[in-house]
Specification:
With 476 residues, this protein is α/β, with parallel strands linked by helices. It has 2 domains: 269 residues, Aldehyde Dehydrogenase, Chain A, domain 1; 180 residues, Aldehyde Dehydrogenase, Chain A, domain 2 (3-Layer(aba) Sandwich). It has 15 helices and 20 strands. The strands form 5 sheets. It has a 7-stranded mixed sheet, with helices on both faces. The protein has a 6-stranded mixed sheet with strand order 9-8-7-10-11-19, with helices on both faces. It has a 3-stranded mixed sheet with strand order 1-5-4, with no helix packed on it. Strand 7, helix 5 and strand 8 form a beta-alpha-beta unit. Helix 2 runs antiparallel to helix 4, helix 4 packs parallel to helix 5 and helix 9 crosses helix 10. The protein is globular and about 65 Å long. The N terminus is likely disordered. It binds nicotinamide-adenine-dinucleotide. Nicotinamide-adenine-dinucleotide binds next to helix 7 and helix 8.
Amino acid sequence: MWEFDPAPETADPKLKARYELFIDGEFVAPKGGKYFESINPANEKKLTELALGGAADVDAAFAAAQRAFDTVWGKMPGRERAKYIYRIARLLQDRAREFAVAETLDNGKPIRETRDFDVPMAAAHFFYHAGWADKLEYLAPGRRVQPLGVVGQVIPWNFPLLMLAWKIAPALAAGNCVVIKPATNTPITAVKLAEIFRDAGLPKGVVNVITGPGATGGLIMAHPKAAKIAFTGSTEVGKVIMKSIAGTDKRMTMELGGKAANIVFDDAPLDQAVEGIVNGIFFNQGQVCCAGSRLLVQESVAEAVIAKLKTRLRVLRVGDPMDKNTDVGAIVSKAQLDTIQGYLDIGVKEGAELWQPPFRRPAKGFYLPPTLFTEVTMSHRVAREEIFGPVLAILTFRTVEEAVEKANNTEYGLSAGVWTDKGSRILKLSTELKAGVVWANTFNKFDPTSPFGGYKESGFGREGGRQGLLDYLQVV
Ligand code: NAD
């Protein structure tokens, strides 16, 4: 049983007692005068408080963004825009440690992940898109490309900084201006990134950051000045937003939920596959839209894979996210922990078998050990619904056809994984699996050059690569 390592990282996240909205290049108090708290899910202590943006603030942000688009940003040559975006990337690198610590404190994800993945990947997105800013005409040879105007963006709490980069970098490279809302649970890196926009000398109003609850997100998505909206979050909220803007001429992209199949064939290198399964579902406590939350394992090796998996999970360290040795940190909030716990109860009630390694829950903080469900069938809710936690539903299959059918038997279609020694099988499955991303002999690999997005209820539009940029441009 793991005791928590008492030696945290010591970098100072430089948190202020209070953060304001970032509108028209300035940090300003919300017109309604209200603030909300952000807490550390690892110990439930208050970290800071943030401005609660309302309708008047959202209007001011869109007015500033439209002004910036009409007078400066929309007219600026791409090579000039690129300089600002490169500067943002470099300033983020300079403050990498501070951002990693702030993100871990706010979200509960292990410092190893924020340090080695979230922050460098966010910087990589700004670098990559800066490189495109003066080459946009190559996206559609022989045609003209134009920015859309002001884009409204709303993001979730699972990769707070990275989602900011995924949204803001392509919008700016394409010549658009932005009004963005981070998730209510994890707003800190958004207001810190606003400091970087200011320090990079980004013209006033080009990016505006409005913190607040879901209702504030609704105001941004439905705002009449938003030429395009980009949303990442749950399928449920995505549908509410789509209804709210039906009949308008807004462009939109939706990055929604997932229930990915990670498929292991009997010829796969099993130890490697087990590492891939662990990374697929326990990275970021399983709070990943493309998590490999359904393991489909070929019947002949199922027993061996499950035994190896249990051995591996016994040594996975669940604990203080600030400890460099932690593998699984805290769940983002009490509400999310309750949702996951609810699914554990549902799974057991439906007849699946639950397994967890020995774990002692600390008195404070929102923790859950890595959890397996075996004896699962396709009709079980734990095999069908997005749990968004460290919970793996394990199913078996006999033939390739059965694997494909089970993998595609879901309303989602964001990602899938295939573990096999056979190249021909990888090629076959990569066309037959209805998923935006198919990983072969790896999982959860990301790169700014690769488009990411869904089939079916996982959404539409792409982020990353040239396809992602095209979603921020009018091709004429
Ligand atoms: P959520 O849908 O509850 O919230 C996402 C964002 O929308 C938050 O900023 C929230 O404040 C805001 N919001 C809530 N109600 C709103 C409304 N009516 N109008 C406008 N905005 C509103 O999702 P979450 O719990 O923050 O994130 C988890 C979900 O996000 C999961 O379903 C996950 O799969 C999905 N996700 C998808 C991707 C992807 O790329 N496909 C990436 C990350 C997360």
